[in-house]
Amino acid sequence: MSQPIVQVGAFADRPFRGNPAAVCVLAGPAEAGWMQAVAAEMNLAETAFLYPEGDGFRLRWFTPVFEVDLCGHATLASAHVLWETGALPPDAPAHFQTRSGRLTCRRAGDWIEMDFPADPPAPVEPPPDLLAALGAEARSVGRGRFDYLVEVESEAAVRELRPDFGRLAAIETRGVIVTARSSGEFDFVSRFFAPASGIDEDPVTGSAHCTLAHYWQNRLGKSEFQAFQASPRGGGVGVAIEGDRVFLRGRGMLVFEGRLAAPAP
After folding, report:
1. For the domain with range 122-243, which CATH number is right: 3.30.420.40, 3.10.310.10, 3.40.30.10, 3.40.190.10?
2. According to CATH, what is the number of the domain 3-106+250-260?
3. Residue 46 is a catalytic residue
4. Mean pLDDT of 1-7
5. Which of 29, 130, 169, 181 is least enclosed, having the fewest CB within 10 Å?
């Protein structure tokens, strides 16, 4: 029997924008090696695997090279699939048990709102080669649980970055967030580079905004933002921070449906 798999554009307002994630809804647990092989085959930033557990679903995320502890866009994509396929009623919240605790998604009109843990960055000295690999001058450098956060002087500086991914991959971190205050309609912009995780540049990174929210709350003195991740695909993210929780909003767009001829053993 084959295994259904779908691809969803997360944080997207139309097809072929935002961040694509593959989603496998399973009947039960699967071997980690099989999930990793599927993720490598899909070759997207993340592939999500979920199955019913308790009052919700167990959710795991894999890059092409390893399992990760937190992923925003593939969580949004998973919730979108559950509602679109009728696995959950349209007005029911999607509860996920994950390596980062319990995460919840709710529908808010055409948007999906995700309740995630905040990941405040602490100021640090940049590791050797970080700024040289980015080709950037930093206003500040911090680090959260997963990633380095580098603020640069302007939105133009963020958009014009051309990192040396070989040098960046040698730095011990999941990824590097580069950000600046927006000169346009958004509060701030960012890009996210993760060559050590198998993805040179992630199109729109929900989990990075768990760090960005706290950082820009301190810089701008407010707790709600409209953010834009300025990758070539690009995508907008609604962000709000309340205590130790961050609420992220985005849309999901179904891109294609298929079936794996090699289902979980």
Report:
1. 3.10.310.10
2. 3.10.310.10
3. yes
4. 90
5. 29
